[in-house]
Amino acid sequence: MPIKIAIVDDKPIVRSAIKDKLYASADISIVLEACNGDDFLEKLRSAAPEKFPEIILIDLEMPKMDGIETIAVGAMLYPAIKFIVLTVFDNSEKIFEAIKAGASGYLLKDDTALNLTEAIINVYRYDAVPMSPAIARKTLGLLKTGFAGETENLSQNKILSSREQDVLRCLVEGLEYRQIAERLFVSPATVRTHIAHIYQKLHVTSKAQAINLAHKNKWI
Amino acid sequence: MAVYYASINDTAKGFALSREGIKMAKELNMTSKLPFLYYALGENYKAAGNFMAYGETVETIMALKDSMYAATSAEEKMKMDAQYQLGEKENLILRQKLEIANKNYLIYGSVLLLILAAVLAGLFFTGYKKNQQIKLLTMQAEQKQAEALAVRSAEENERKRISRDLHDNIGAYATVLLANTEQLRKHAATADVKQAVKAVSENAGHIMGSLQETIWVLNNDLIKVTDFIDRFKLYARKMMESYKAVNIIFEEMIMNDIILSPAEAFNIFRILQEALQNVLKHSGSQNITVTVLSNNTFIVSILDDGKGFNTKELSSGNGLYNMQYRAKEAGYTFTISSVPGETAVLLQKNNLLSG
Asked: Is this prediction's ipTM beyond 0.85?
């Protein structure tokens, strides 16, 4: 059963380039295309169950409803869906915002077909894509100032474990999974799990905030 | 004298003298002397035993005294009246003087008041003028500030527009171009076509990479050292994909996360890229260490354990010259030292905390 994905980007030429990259893979099936957040949520509403996407590749800068808002609203309305930010340029500020809104990571549009496919499979199976040094540093920074203020109900499980912090420090140093695993005397799979947890804990956009966004965009 | 004659009883001579005296005094209108003369006459009458004449003389004296009193009092009165009138006059004069003085005071006061008012008005006016001047200056400064702000915001908008344009158009096409070359590579039949497609693909990749860095610089007015080095890590990681045997580590000592200007960041980034490429392509090193120190001094260095090179032989016409030029432009000192097994490229900027 291939992974069902959707592509949300305002430029048809980019959508077709991404499609070209992913067509070759037997593990992936493109079930939905949209040109902005509004269009995407509209199409999602009327999507047949067999065409309902599991992973969304989404651009950040789009007219009408941008990527971050779409992720926040989409993650609230459809918790089972996973979002991957797809961007030409890795603006760490915006990507960090997208992750806090509920994205499971980001990919560059110029990544090779192989990398894209691998990342999609990783998110589907393990809920994680590699984290860049800049995002890792921002996560550590967020930890320092505290997750408080980001959510109105700060729960214990939003606090990073010391092992997760170790992983983050390794990521800031620019180490890869393999190197982090060696450094911390764990398996690469464990490192991947830690990173997945960190992503989950970073999804700190509050429900109230998401509801506001949904209201603003007339989705509830 | 007549009294003396009377006392020695020579009354004839006394009579004559008194009568002559009285006559003279009457002629000369010396009324005040008359009582004395009559008295002398009376004494002579008494001495002569003529008491009738003496009595008459005494009556005359009394009448004289009365009239004299009346005269004196009239005189006194006149005198007093005169004095009073004089006083009155003096008083009037005084009053007039006072009035004049008052008038003078009034005049002086008015003049003084006028002067004071003039001075005050002058002060006020200069103050007003000054205020106006200050207001004008403030307005001019504000206008200048607004203009500068407008220029800055226009620049900002233009920068954002260029960035968006690059991102949306060139970025989109470069993405597609890369995707196309990937497809082409799969379908390339002959070796030379494969080679050509590979070259196109690599160049498209370079365009994409440069574009991303340009957008990065355009998108940020201020770049923190941490952001800067994190981006370089991404670049290095991508480069290392082609050099799996080489190990790269990053060492950070960022006590003060200084801010770099976009131009500065861009130049330094290009130098580091060039340096890393040189190491990977030419040095044959196994271990690369990138060190960042940021406090009062900002230092970035790339150290490798490769074979090294003669720094004097590479003078111009190569990347080194470019690196040096870029460093100078960014206000950094650029030093390179090399012995076999230890080559270091070092970029440095000093006195960051002292302003």
From this structure: no
